Amino acid sequence: MNLTVIGTGYVGLVSGVCFSDLGNRVTCVDNVPQKIEMLKKGEVPIYEPGLKELIDKNTEESRLSFTTDLSAAVKEAEIIIIAVGTPQSENGEADLRYIDQAAKEIAAAMNGYKIIMTKSTVPVGTNERIRNLISGITNHSFDIVSVPEFLREGSAVRDTFNPDRIVIGTERKAAAEKIISLHTPLTDNIFVTDIRSAEMIKYASNAFLATKISFINEIANICEKVGADVDLVAQGMGYDKRIGPSFLSAGIGYGGSCFPKDTKALIQIAGNVEYDFKLLRSVVEVNQMQRFGVIDKLLDSLGTIQNRTIGIWGLAFKPNTDDVREAPSLEIVSALLELGATVKIYDPIATNNFLNVLNHPYIIRCDSALDASRDCDAICLLTDWQEFKEVDLDQIGDAMRLPIMIDGRNTYTLKDMATKKFLYYSVGRPLIKHTHEQALEYQNVNIG
Ligand code: NAD
Predict the structure, then answer these.
(1) pLDDT-based confidence at 370, cuts 50/70/90?
(2) Which of 268, 285, 359, 385 reaches 20 to 30 Å from 347, CA-CA?
(3) Could you tell me the pTM of the whole model?
(4) What are the chain's domains?
């Protein structure tokens, strides 16, 4: 099939590349010329494991191309995939300006029947809005299909090739059949429904996952106070098939380009029909508070943050991505700067993106976890990159001024940390003090 994907970000680029790998002819369009120039040269503007290899292969085999010329790309395509951003607007609602613009540009370029498939996450009713916009501009016939995207950054290629399900929302049987055949190589689990339900499935899924995260984080906070271990609690809960083990890792809360904005958008979608989504409002509030547990633990161990040097391990909102959108690191580092700290930052991939959003004379960029630990009064692990699991913690401890670690992702086992000389805080698990002597030493730090 001939496909055109509009928006070559995390979703559009990965989807376009994977569809080309399945044998389709795909043109990826973006209105940022630098992105397209990079892609034409074989450079990938985002970090996503496995993506570069697939781009090289499918470009070479002439199934994949990149352009800023939306009009030409629309004319060539049978199916047009909308994958532009739907960021959060000031009141929490999804900002649909990129959707509207893409719809108008598609309409102006149409030269015959097209299927328009929306992958962007859009509020209920948006596909009807797209239909109205397009039919107000062109007389050519078209069908609208909502196919919400469920890939996760960091494993986007694997997720695209192995989806749990494909949801197809449309009122037109012929269009549904075409979109089913496009996805059949990926899975048998294709769920065809109406457009509004498809739009809602995406928000409901993300809201439910966010709820699971905030739920386990609250359990973790209670565990800290009652002396239980949240990892063991989650393990015991996860054996129950009705609950399942995934999304029960306690930590500093969710971030990224989806959960924060999609939860807030769903609260607004509900609000627009005068429904107060109380549960989801609490999920958002709990998530917002959770990241500041790191600061509380620093204060607990150091007494004051003023004039301290704090190392930050991990800036991306999750491992295996360079994306820092809504990453907890942004708020935690801002809070540390406000409290008078010097902050040494390290991330394997995301440092440039982080510094583009937040830069400050008291932020020191480091090239390794060790570098970001040297002479620090404490380190905070905010993203659980594999690399951090493999560091030599004895060497790290020796390099620090005070061997204090706040592990925001429960990266290390308590058993392992019991053999290290850190004062080790994690989330929802008991504090580890290495020796009685060291505990006394830390108490002195606290008083000082
Ligand atoms: P993104 O910001 O990474 O990419 C969007 C791209 O669209 C940008 O490159 C932008 O330049 C381009 N664009 C905007 N308007 C355009 C136009 N008129 N013509 C051509 N290009 C245009 O966004 P993303 O993370 O890929 O997300 C896209 C959508 O998918 C959002 O609705 C998001 O909620 C949803 N989604 C994202 C993820 C994820 O993990 N990132 C997962 C599932 C769903």
Answers:
(1) very high
(2) 285
(3) 0.94
(4) 2-193 (3.40.50.720), 202-289 (1.10.1040.10), 291-447 (3.40.50.720)
